[in-house]
Amino acid sequence: MEKLVDFIINDGNFNEGFYVSLEIREKGIPILLKPYTKVPPAPEIPKLYQNWQKQYAFWISVQRGIEVPQNQVTNVSSQRDCKEAEKKLKKGMEEWFKKASFVELGKQVLDTVKEEESAHIIFKINNDLLHKQNNELLQKLPWQLWNIFDSRNKVWFSLSSKPEQHSQQIKAAVLKMPVKILAIFGADEGIDIQKDKNFLEELQSKKKAEIEKLLQPTLEEVHNKLWNESWDILFFAGHSSSQNDGNSGNIQINSNESLDLDDFRNTLREATKKGLKLAIFNSCDGMGLANKLAELEIPQVIVMREPVPDEVAQKFLQEFLRLFSEGEPFYLAVRQAANKLESVGGKYPGALWLPVICQNPTEKSLAWSQPNRFQNMF
Questions:
Q1: Of 16, 63, 183, 201, which is most buried by a Cβ count within 10 Å?
Q2: Tell me: the pLDDT tens digits for 139-175?
Q3: In order of start, what are the domains of the chain with their CATH numbers?
């Protein structure tokens, strides 16, 4: 049975510290409650993250052959600078997690979640009380560096912006085979989406999924598919961006049209009513997309925190789809697929941090049904 851990960041800032609460549930019943703890300040973390973010974005630009203003910087020095920024951010986060209050919170999680048990930690960030800059940064931090994830192989995390709601999952919501996937392949200038198509087609060839592909569709075509038909998973590959300080986003669905999620709210809500349970955006800068989709109550969303190289996006998608479709629990499939990015982490420092789950905390976890053995999973 999966245990659920609500880690709620209620108020505060990096200069003065944050006020947090911790609640652990099993079968919807609280078994541990720590209502009010202050974690220490970490004023250096915003600068460390911004430095890595800057160096990472510059290195990705160099890799893609995009003209950059720093004419004297070589490819070698760009990668080296990015790696150094990654190391400094990692060290800063690990030192923060070693502070007494974080150690005590982690101990309570580890004492409650045994080694053989699985657990899902939801970092709930109170958008109403936190300054927007703190909120945006808290969503992007590599929380996986907290050593509780090293201590428990069956524990992973997601993000939520609804701290007032308790997680009530008892067992997973089942995606019955063949899983219905609507795959939108948008404007793809400068990126390679062919491998994404191949991975999805492989699922279909194994009769694990029914895939409908929309290649650079019009807005009307996307609207009609989501409004008039039912889907389990919505997948997008192409260009995307966050807007409004990370609270919304758009996707470039063809060379002339972009889809602003604010203007598509009724369509997406209708898709959710019809059964949409997961949205995957294998595209850049997805936090704004995730926040808007969470607001529209789509149960689970996977996005990339920052610009994502083709190689990273493709490897993550391939590993995630393979693991999830073979019966690995949803959160652990994401964890393992992200960990597999170590093979390209040297080339793209910080790549392991990019994929993140954002979710509606009241929704059940997901499971991909497996013939003849699914009934034994719970």
A1: 183
A2: 999 999 999 999 899 999 999 866 556 665 556 788 9
A3: 3-40+99-160 (3.30.420), 45-89 (no CATH), 173-376 (3.40.50.1460)
